[in-house]
Every structure is written in C-alpha cells, then in structure tokens.
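Continuing from the previous page of notes. For each protein in this section, the sequence appears first, followed by its structure tokens. Read the first protein now.
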Amino acid sequence: MTIRQRTSQAGLGTLHLLDGMSAATRLVTVELDPALSRIAQEEIDDHRVEFVIANGGRWLESQDAIKSRFDLIFADTGPGKFSHLD
C-alpha cells in the first residue's frame, strides 16, 4: 500500500499516519517549505516515509500516472483536495 500526504508541515500528521501503517506500507509526504520539511525529517526516522520538498500541484503533475498510484491520499491543502483530483 502507498499513501501520499500533502502537506507534512512539521510532521505531526505524518507521525499519526505512520502510527497506523503496516511495516509494508510506504508514505510519500510532500511539503513546500524546506524549513518545515527539515523539522519533520529531523524528528522522524522511519524507513517507510519519503520526504519530498516541492509544490504539491507541480509535483503531482510531474509524476508518471501509472507508477505513482496511491491507495490513499491525505490532502490537507489545495492540490489533491480542491485541484489535481484525477
């Protein structure tokens, strides 16, 4: 299973998602602000999470539609919540 989170901010939501994930589940979390992403990365040491620093909408547009399928999207911001829904 693969989960995508938009936006990780300082990592609180990421920690909650990780807490409920199995060992085989992968989490890709996208944050625009490098300083916030850095805080989350310093606090979260978990092989299941991939931190991406990027504009969420542009990052989604850059992904291969077949290779980047997600079983669950946790969208706490515009891209994936109000736009980029396909």
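Done with the first. The second protein uses the same format. Note its length before scrolling.
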Amino acid sequence: MALITTRSHHRDNRTGSRVTTIAWPDRRADIITALAVLSTLRPHTPTPWPGLTEAVHWLIDDTFWDQHSPASDIGTILASITEADAITATLTPLSAIVDELGPTAADDDYLTHPRWHDVTHAAAHAHQLMTGQTPTQPEH
C-alpha cells in the first residue's frame, strides 16, 4: 500500500505570506522533540525520556535523512528549505559522531565528544527556526 501525500500552500490571512501545509504533522512534532532533546542533553546527568536514543531514532531512522536530503521532505515534514538546511546542519556533526563511536556507545561518550557542541548549537537553531521558541527538555 503506497502512502500518498500532498503538498499544498496557502496564504496566511493575517500576513499575506505563503504557508506550506505539512502532510505529516505528527512526524514533524517528533523532529521538533528530537531537536529539543539534542540541544538540552548534558553529560554526566541522568538521561530523561525521551533521550538520545529516541532523538536519533526520530531524526535519522524514521526519516532516512542519512540517505537523502531533508529538502525532499518539504511539505511532508518540513516547511521550507531554510528548515531543511538547519536539519542538515544538525545531522552533519551528529552523523559523524555516530559513525565514529558506533550505535552502542554510552550516551556520555556522545555527549562528551569534541563535536557534540556542534550538535547542540545546530539543534537549538533548527528548533528555534521550526517553533519560534528556545528549546527546553521535553516532558512526556
């Protein structure tokens, strides 16, 4: 069974700007949560839920963005090329760390990696861009 999605645009009545309708808002919510997690995790602290494993799963495994550009999901998960670029900026250091340490390393190994600050800064920027809010640790 093939999943059919549509990408549509409309004008915001208040601002007159073009707005992209997101076909998969629940997946977008997972991405936003993943970005909040990545930007707020700190080493040597208890890992909350959702944690690093869930964030990586939502951002990479559920989207296949390690295999294709986030730009291909504009209209399904993302609203703009700016959001896609911000996601790519998060994925670049994150993927490099995962490739270097492997999928079974302890969370603190990731969180103390020299490039982890690149992940947190990029994730915070992407979260801000997608929500207009400063990220905080998600509560579930």
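What the second structure shows: The radius of gyration is 16 Å. The longest strand covers residues 8-11. We return to this in next week's lecture.
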